[in-house]
Automatic annotation (TrEMBL):
Subcellular location as annotated: Membrane
CDD domains according to UniProt: B_lectin
Name of the protein: Receptor-like serine/threonine-protein kinase
Membership in a protein family: Belongs to the protein kinase superfamily. Ser/Thr protein kinase family.
Domain (Protein kinase): residue spans on this chain: 510-781
Species this protein is from: Rosa chinensis
Keyword Ribonucleoprotein assigned: no
Pfam families according to UniProt: B_lectin, Pkinase
Amino acid sequence: MAFDLLYLLCFIVLALLPCSTMAQTSKNISLGSSLTAQNNDNSSWSSPTGEFAFGFRQIEKDGFLLAIWFDKIPQKTIVWSANRDSLVPQGSKVELTSGGQFVLNDAEGIQIWDADSFSTEVSHAAMLDTGNFVLANRNSTYLWESFDHPTDTMLPTQILQQNFILRACYTMTNYSTGRFLFSLQPDGNLVLYTTNFPQDSPNFAYWSTNTINTEIGFQVIFNQSGLIYLTSDNGTILNTVSGKPIATQDFYQRATLDYDGVLRHYVYPKSSGSSEERWSTSSFIPPNICRSITAEVGGGACGFNSLCRLTDPGQPTCQCPNGYSPIDPNDVLKGCKQDFVPQSCSARDAPSPEDDFDFQEMLNTNMPGDDYEHFKVVSEDWCRQNCLEDCFCDVAIFNTAGDCFKKGLPFSNGMIDPTLSGTKALVKIRKDNSTLKDGGANSKKKDDLTLIIIGSVLLSSSGILNFILPLITYVVVSRMYSRKAVPVPPNYQGMNLKYFTYEELKEATNEFKEELGRGASATVFKGVLACDKGKCVAVKILDAKVRENDLEFNAEVRAIGRTNHRNLVQLLGFCNEGQHRVLVYEFMSNGTLASFLFGETRPNWYQRRQIALGTARGLLYLHDECSCQIVHCDIKPQNILLDDSFTARISDFGLAKLLRLDQTLTITGIRGTKGYVAPEWFKNLPITAKVDVYSFGILLLEIICCRKKFDEEAEDGDQIILADWAYDCYKQKKLHLLLEKNDEAIEDIKMMEKYVMIAMWCIQEDPSLRPTMKKTIHMLEGTVEVSKPPDPSSYISSIL
């Protein structure tokens, strides 16, 4: 008891030591000084004791970071960098100009970074022994310091104010911005977040101090004694992040948000000069990263289709189930991909799934969230058989309580943990995965080579025919290499799609010269297929840095690979080669509906009606008429393209959800675009095809009015939200206000009123009140009477 009191007393004394007591000795760096990046020469400015250095560190063959690092240890551990997302080449220079600017320019003289502190008062710079690099005036007052602009690391004596952010690195060897952040929020809560990578915005909070609004004026302090804690403005300690005092004179210290999302407090003995010595972990948060990250949206701690297991305390290891392999072996957090041909949903293709599939049983394993079906009080044998017979079931989770959870791909939040005793994952795998060994392509090459050898031997044995040997050999070799260089992967066989190599598409687009459009995770280029009589195509390249794009790519290929309808954009082929995910579509000469509706020239009323009807027919096909029901999940003007005759073509199936023919609803995370997303997404209700009906209703209003769903620049505040304004105009019998300078539509005001009423029915908050797309088409065509709609605005106003 006495020892505990003594420890507590020491803790309080050490914690409240002011961080400014350390002498800030420095070697001044004068105006006009500079450093140049040179291969194999980490030019730098060192701190007085040489413990830290500031300068260039070579990260790649011709890529340099402007950084701060521990300079007395063999690893030269980096603690801060200026250009983490934009390495600079050899010959780049950082300079403290005579005018007081501190800038980084590349070898061509283009500015890459500056300290954002230009002041004529700057008289010198200094690398301090604390690891803080500063710009100061003649009175040694700091005008800028690296401690105020952290990257992924905190150091002793560093204080972080509200709204600071530490951002993890992308991987252990890639210093660019990664998938996790650590932030002291304005409300006083200290939080670890996953991010909407690579957009770098908070997504899911997986650890926090829960100190919301308890005090005013927060700081995170890393004091000289190695304590990291959260304080109020009066110095009260609200939470201790790392509470183990360490002898500063004996150890180097740092707290780093690592690439795997764990914030670790590291120590390194100063007395060690051994190259074998490594940083050891003093403490870390959260205690179990595998179980902490269970967001409804996202892949969990290790990415989609993967499993997280703690090996050492706080150290996660990511692994793939049998039959799966890493999407990128160099980036374990990208998750895993299925390596075998998935179960077919066609009875003709898979008459007896028991013959082709079995389960890998994984004990103490769970994948919380994103179940599409849940059965209670069933046996394990029943759960296995039910998943086996369901072509959409890729994993079943079964526990001793008799719960059976069915999951499709991609599964998320995978974890293996001893505390999950009684819960097991049944991962469906193909019994015979020989189709994955690339035997088809290799055997064909062997057959061709064998044919060449046999032919050569036979022809060589006849002196009369020897003169035609070169000709025969040439023909056979030409035939061999005229075949596709890359075979169609087994996951996509059976679709009437062409498999392109990346080089073919690079040539078709003239090295991706003409850009047609750009989204958050993909860019579309115009191309010309020399192999298809100069046919124009749209080549959609998914961003390799976005981990969800492998899933988006698979969804898009599988969703529309077998569809064929005049109101859908036809997918012609694809490329899945290394890190390249590319989709090749037929080219739509008139661009997107968004540019058509919201451009300078307003399309005529007849065209708009035909576009609305064509879009509705495309959705009806997806919902009711193709081989498996498809819910598009992202209907908006940007995803409706127009062909030569301005026929509407639905595109972009990256967020699509596939349902079995006997399945009418599913549970999934929020998909779609703000303003077009149906209310049930936000209420965790089952998702049906009615979510597309809602999006179509918003789209129909935009088609009617040639106006965006949300217009902040509207002169009248009542007109900002189109759906609310349209209903008000309908209710007050002032529909003409929606059609300013649109005489053609005003002359057809009765038809226009009917279209507004149809839109109001489509955007009802209750999905059961919305019509099906079949009934919507009948109303648009005039074969079904349109009744007076209720007010739908209560929900719309609340989300915009």
